[in-house]
Specification:
307 residues; alpha+beta; TATA-Binding Protein; Endonuclease Iii, domain 2; Endonuclease III, domain 1; 17% strand; DNA-binding
DNA sequence: TACCAGGATATGG
DNA sequence: CCATATCATGGT
C-alpha cells in the first residue's frame, strides 16, 4: 500500500510557475505536463517517487503537490527538497534591483518576471545529465538522457501510466561502456558516466559533501573528477546545489545570449563575459538563468537583427 | 556540404 | 602555458 502525500508549498512574489517550467517541457522529456498538472518521477533517498504539481491562477504563490510512493515519515524531508527543487525560497528582488539600471537585461527580466530555476532532484542526476550535455546540442542530449534512463532506470506507474525514473549510481555502475556506445554516446563520455557512478558506489566520490563547501572549493573538488571541467562543475553548482553566484563564462549558449541581448558584433570571449558579469554579483546565477532562457526564447528587442 | 552544438581530455610545442 | 585533434551525431 503506497502512501499518498498531499503538500501545499507556498512562496513569495515575484514568482511565475509558467515561466519557471517552460524550458522543462521542451528540453527535458522527464517532465510531462497534462491538463495543467506537471508530472515528474524522481528517486529520493532510495525510493522512486512520482510528484504531480498543480498550480492555480487564483492562488499563484502556492504549488499543490501530490507525492506518490513516499514514506509518511519522510514528509518534512520531501517538503524541504521540493522547496529546493522549485527554488521556492529564492528571493529574486535583490537581483532585480541590481539589474534595474541595465536596460538590456532589465528588458529580458521584464518579459519573464518571476522565472526561477527548477533544479535537479539529486546532485548525481545533475552531474550525469550535465556530462551528457557536454558539447552536443540540447535536443540530442535529451535523447541520450532518455536512452540512459530507459536502459538503466526504473519505472513507476500512476493511474495506469508509466513514468521513467532517472537511474541511481548503482544502476549505472553495472553497465558496460560498449552498451552506452551502442546508444550513440561517444567512448569517453561512456567512460566518464560509468566510472563516476562506480566511484560513487564504492565511496571514492561523495557528492553530498559539496553542500558544505563554498563555491570555489566545491568547483576545485569537482574538477578533480575525470570528465568534469569547470563548465560542468559550474552547472552542478547552478542546477544541483542551487548556488546563486555562478557564471559559466565559457558557456557557448551564455555567450551567444549575451551577444544577442547586448547586440554585440562578435561573440564575447570568456574574459569579456566575466568582466560584464562583475556587475551582477552576487546574483550571477540568476543572470545566467535569465540569459539562458532568453537564448531559448528570444525576446523581442528594438533594432534586433539576426545573428 | 560544412559548420556549430549550453566541453573535456590527450598530446605536442 | 597555449594550440590542435578527437569525439559522434543532430540541427541548420
Amino acid at each position: 500500500m503506497t502512501f499518498l502525500l498531499q503538500l501545499e508549498l507556498k512562496t513569495r512574489p515575484p514568482y511565475s510557475f509558467q515561466h519557471s517550467i517552460r524550458r522543462l517541457l521542451n528540453h527535458h522529456s522527464e517532465f510531462e505536463y497534462r491538463e495543467d498538472v506537471l508530472y515528474r518521477a524522481m528517486r529520493l533517498w532510495g525510493r522512486p517517487l512520482l510528484i504531480a504539481v498543480s498550480w492555480k491562477e487564483d492562488d499563484p504563490l502556492t504549488l499543490s503537490v501530490q507525492v506518490k510512493g513516499a514514506k509518511e515519515a519522510d514528509q518534512e524531508k520531501i517538503k524541504r527538497r521540493l522547496r529546493h527543487i522549485f527554488s521556492l525560497d529564492r528571493d529574486l528582488t535583490p537581483f532585480y534591483r541590481i539589474v534595474a539600471l541595465d536596460s538590456k537585461l532589465a528588458k529580458v527580466i521584464e518579459q519573464r518576471k518571476g522565472l526561477r530555476p527548477v533544479l535537479d532532484p539529486s546532485l548525481y542526476e545533475c552531474l550525469i545529465k550535465t556530462i551528457i550535455g557536454q558539447q552536443i546540442n540540447v535536443s540530442f542530449a535529451a535523447t541520450l538522457i532518455q536512452r540512459l534512463t530507459t536502459l538503466a532506470g526504473d519505472k513507476v506507474t500512476w493511474d495506469g501510466k508509466e513514468y521513467l525514473v532517472f537511474p541511481d549510481p548503482e544502476q549505472v555502475a553495472k553497465l558496460d561502456y560498449s552498451t552506452l556506445q551502442q546508444m550513440q554516446f561517444n567512448r569517453r563520455k561512456a567512460e566518464y558516466i560509468i566510472d563516476i557512478s562506480r566511484q560513487i558506489v564504492n565511496g571514492k566520490i561523495d557528492l553530498e559533501q559539496l553542500y558544505e563547501l563554498e563555491d570555489e572549493a566545491a568547483i576545485e573538488e569537482l574538477v578533480k573528477i575525470r570528465g568534469v571541467g569547470r563548465w560542468t562543475a559550474e552547472c552542478l553548482l547552478l542546477f544541483g546545489l542551487g548556488r546563486r553566484d555562478l557564471l559559466p563564462a565559457a558557456d557557448i549558449g551564455l555567450r551567444n545570449a549575451i551577444r544577442f541581448i547586448y547586440q554585440l558584433d562578435h561573440q564575447p570571449t570568456e574574459q569579456e563575459v566575466r568582466a560584464m558579469g562583475q556587475k551582477w554579483a552576487p546574483w550571477r546565477s540568476d543572470a545566467t538563468f535569465y540569459l539562458w532562457d532568453a537564448l531559448t526564447y528570444p525576446p523581442i528587442l528594438n533594432n534586433s537583427r539576426p545573428i
